[in-house]
Every structure is written in C-alpha cells, then in structure tokens.
Amino acid sequence: GAEQWPTLLAELLQLSQSGMVAAMEAVGKACEDGCEEMVADEPLMAQLIPALIGLLSSSPNIEIRRLALDAFNVFILHPSEQIEAALSSLLGVLGQLTGEGRLQRSLCECLSLLVEAYPAEMQSALPAIHEFQLAALQSPQEAVCLEACEFWLAA
Q: Is the pTM of this model over 0.70?
C-alpha cells in the first residue's frame, strides 16, 4: 500500500542512481499512478523531489535523466511546497541538460508545465525559456517540435 512507498521509492531511487533504467521506469509509473496520494504526503515529497532533481543533474545515463524528468513532470500541475522550494535548483539543472529526442521533448514539456503552474515564479526565466522553445521548433524530431508548439499554444 501507499504506506510502503517511502521505503520502496528510496530503494528504487538508489537502484536508479546506480544506472538501473528499469528501477527509474518503476519510479515513474508509481508517480503517474499515485500522484494525488504522493502530493498529499509531504515527507514523501520532501524525499522524492530532491532525489529526482539529483538524478537529473548527476546521472550519466540520458534515459534515467529523461525518466526522472518525466516523473517530475507528473507533479508540476499539483503545486506543493516541495516543488516551489525546488524551483530555483530545478531551473539550474534544466539549464544544464542537453540531449536529443525524448529528453528534449520532456524538457519542452517541463518548461511548459512550469510556466503554466508557476507563472510568477517563472517570470525571470521566460526569456531563456522562449529562446529554448524557439530552438526546439527547429528540431529534426517531430515529437520535440510538437511539444514546443504546445508551449506556444498555451502562451
């Protein structure tokens, strides 16, 4: 049950840090399926959000970085103190992310969701976000272009 999530997620995140993609896939699925309950569990979110940002910034595996970003994206439209407190460090990490294809698509989605959910907090980052989304429109990857279009449609 949900009461076992902190232990299970901690173990899965540890496996993800060691490069196990399947563990990060499981974290993502748990986040998708249990988003509402997780957001209501402040201690769990206090553990999960920094761990996801840590994987984004330090995993050498691009697929784990993408999965961590996708897991984080699940929570953005469910504002919480943990996400709001992590915004500045998240933006710093997002600015350092590079990658093609699916990671870039996830990054476009993340930036769109952040601007929608935290417009005042994102105000100072808008010029860089606009520049990124304009560049994403030129991607050879159709999924990246479509996600960048979603940003401009919502703007």
A: yes
